[in-house]
């Protein structure tokens, strides 16, 4: 075989199978796939929407470690105009089939004739022994030639790889050097359900490892690696540097990355758009109309909790006694059974209903709560107490600012790190009386109890006058 000839001209191989669908079509599908993932869709749902099978979508997601490859990310630009596009190759194939010459094709595409000549010689289809030009085959040849496989730094630098592995998965030891035996953690391809136990290891974070290298090896520039490269070595299949089992050493324990939109988009099944805080009556915002409440739980040791309800206009506070149920701390919790700690959905619903129904109906207009699972039975409150519940946006405590401020005051009586189940209903009532009897600057130095009594008296007098 003579040297210097084009690859297609010196090809003597037997007929090959078709390269299949052009890579550019698959690229468009993958672009759309990662756009849907970035919007919070699951890999299976995104695959179905773009018209590929669910296993294909799952494989794309897992091979990329849960994040789009750089050339498929939304911020990645289109291929440079320096190279022929798939559309141009289709034009070349059509014009070639009509018998057009190289210069005519070049003039039509506004390309140099040498570019068209090289394209016809390099990327022609040779599976039939001839040199027929097909756009799909030419695109496949071009993409294969454009690949630039690069060995990962952790795979080529053994000293660096050992340094990273030791600080991710090294044993925890006593000061005397004796190793501490920890729990055995089985690596899972994808973390399901509750957070799994972490590997009993030194477990520095990738960023800590990356920054520490500069201090431990100030003169050796080969001992440098970014924390992103460490994450990619852990998450992306085929990197061949670090074992994916080491993901159990990370703080999150994730075997795959989770797109930001997917994590923030996780909502509770009992929350719908019509009961979000944005749909709450506008009168609640200016505090002019009483009867709008804010609620939350303050938590203590041993899963103990106390419920708090604060009226927005008067700052009047109600405390909910949530004692632990029988068997808490001793018996195993029954699957899908009640929360033995005492602040499950049913317990919180009953406590709110028992407290709030003691007030007149015009003081039970709405209740704002965070998206905690303890409010899963919120619909029952509207039936039992006539109190509609509205939920705040995730990670937005300022939407319940009055309640957050009151909880801060309550920590004077119920400090953090203490068991709140030791307090009796009488204790909670005494604290509520003390808090409601404290003068407030925002109320013109009236107490919340005085402000509530004034409202109730005014409403009662208005009702009598109307009747008369």
From TrEMBL:
Protein name (database record): IS30 family transposase
DNA-binding is among the record's keywords: yes
Recorded family membership: Belongs to the transposase IS30 family.
Amino-acid biosynthesis in keyword set: no
Keyword tags: DNA recombination, DNA-binding, Transposition
Span of domain Integrase catalytic: 277-456
Residues covered by region (Disordered): 1-22
Function: Required for the transposition of the insertion element.
Parts of the chain that traverse the membrane: none
Organism of provenance: Paracoccus benzoatiresistens
């Amino acid at each position: 075989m003579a040297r210097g000839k084009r690859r297609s001209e010196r090809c003597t191989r037997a007929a090959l199978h078709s390269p299949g669908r052009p890579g550019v079509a698959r690229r468009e599908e993958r672009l759309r796939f990662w756009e849907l993932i970035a919007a919070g869709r699951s890999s299976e749902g995104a695959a179905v929407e773009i018209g590929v099978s669910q296993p294909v979508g799952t494989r794309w997601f897992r091979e990329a470690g849960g994040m789009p490859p750089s050339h498929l990310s939304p911020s990645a630009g289109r291929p440079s105009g320096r190279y022929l596009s798939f559309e141009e190759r289709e034009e070349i194939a059509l014009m070639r089939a009509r018998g057009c010459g190289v210069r005519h094709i070049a003039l039509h595409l506004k390309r140099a004739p040498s570019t068209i000549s090289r394209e016809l010689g390099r990327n022609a289809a040779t599976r039939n022994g001839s040199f027929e030009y097909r756009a799909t085959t030419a695109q496949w040849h071009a993409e294969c030639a454009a690949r630039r496989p690069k060995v990962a730094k952790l795979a080529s630098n053994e000293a660096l790889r050992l340094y990273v592995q030791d600080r991710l998965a090294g044993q925890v030891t006593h000061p005397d050097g004796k190793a501490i035996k920890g729990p055995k953690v089985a690596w899972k391809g994808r973390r399901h359900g509750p957070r799994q136990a972490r590997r009993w290891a030194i477990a520095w974070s990738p960023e800590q490892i990356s920054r520490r290298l500069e201090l431990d090896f100030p003169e050796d520039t080969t001992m440098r690696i970014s924390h992103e490269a460490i994450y990619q070595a852990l998450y992306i299949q085929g990197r061949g540097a670090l074992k994916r089992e080491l993901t159990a050493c990370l703080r999150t324990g994730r075997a795959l990355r989770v797109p930001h939109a997917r994590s923030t988009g996780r909502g509770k099944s009992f929350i719908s758009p019509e009961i979000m805080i944005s749909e709450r009556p506008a009168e609640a915002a200016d505090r002019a109309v009483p009867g709008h409440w804010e609620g939350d739980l303050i938590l203590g040791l041993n899963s103990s909790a106390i419920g708090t309800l604060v009226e927005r206009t008067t700052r009047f506070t109600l405390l909910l006694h949530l004692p632990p149920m029988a068997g808490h701390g001793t018996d195993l919790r029954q699957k899908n059974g009640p929360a033995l700690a005492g602040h499950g959905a049913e317990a919180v619903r009953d406590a709110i209903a028992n407290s709030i129904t003691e007030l007149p109906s015009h003081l039970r207009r709405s209740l704002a709560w965070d998206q905690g699972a303890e409010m899963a039975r919120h619909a029952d409150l509207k039936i039992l107490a006539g109190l509609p519940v509205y939920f705040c946006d995730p990670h937005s405590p300022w939407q319940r600012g009055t309640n957050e401020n009151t909880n801060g005051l309550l920590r004077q009586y119920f400090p953090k790190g203490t068991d709140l189940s030791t307090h009796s209903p009488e204790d909670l009532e005494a604290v509520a009386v003390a808090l409601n009897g404290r003068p407030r600057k925002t109320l013109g130095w009236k107490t919340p109890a005085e402000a509530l009594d004034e409202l109730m008296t005014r409403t009662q007098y208005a009702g009598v006058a109307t009747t008369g």
